[in-house]
Write a structure and sequence with these properties.
Length: 206
């Protein structure tokens, strides 16, 4: 079972996700030390999932920054190798994780994505949740908090609302999720967006 996520750690992970997705090297260098209380392997995984939300250029840039920071601070990196290519297994574990994150809204989500384009529905399960977010390493709660940070930085309102709820479904208390989102918003100057979404969820009281 994943150890509880404190508000301080949640804020640190949200800031890390936001900084990586923003492509701002200085912000990422400032965010790494706070998040470094987590195992270095967790940081590697949370930076790796940046590509899912912000694309390969931002993910690769984040690793240049992280590689330099780790070398300068004597942090020994031990990145996990890619898993064997197994789309069937990825789809199975991806569906399992996606059901946790979306809860009772899972079937509606899949229906909406399939109407947009059938490939989006399938890729969400295989690529997004199966290959990336269900990799060994940080649990769903920590991954969702980092995703919240990335989505705050990107201003992706629809997806932000879903992943705020997803973090709560993964076991992070809503007040901790809200604090983490506000921390990322302060760094990214996205406070109006975050407050609007939190209010829609009934989490608006600071």
């Amino acid at each position: 079972m994943e150890r509880p996520l404190s508000a301080a750690e949640a804020c640190a992970l949200a800031r890390l996700g936001a900084a990586a997705a923003s492509g701002d090297d200085d912000r990422l260098r400032a965010a790494i030390p706070e998040a470094a209380d987590s195992h270095a392997g967790d940081i590697e995984e949370l930076l790796l999932q940046t590509y899912l939300f912000a694309g390969f250029p931002r993910a690769i840039n984040a690793f240049f920054v992280w590689q330099g920071w780790a070398a300068n601070h004597g942090v020994k990196r031990a990145p996990e190798p890619p898993e064997p290519w197994d789309p069937v297994a990825w789809r199975e574990r991806g569906e399992e994780l996606c059901r946790v994150v979306y809860g009772a809204n899972y079937e509606a989500l899949q229906g909406r994505l399939a109407r947009l384009h059938p490939a989006l529905a399938e890729w969400t399960l295989v690529e997004g949740y199966g290959k990336v977010l269900a990799r060994p390493g940080p649990g769903a709660g920590r991954r969702e908090i980092a995703a919240v940070g990335a989505l705050v930085a990107l201003g992706a309102e629809r997806q932000l609302k879903a992943h705020l709820q997803g973090a709560a479904h993964a076991g992070v208390p809503p007040d901790v999720v809200a604090r983490a989102a506000r921390a990322a918003a302060a760094d990214a100057s996205r406070e109006p967006l975050v407050e609007r979404v939190l209010a829609e969820l009934g989490w608006g009281a600071a």
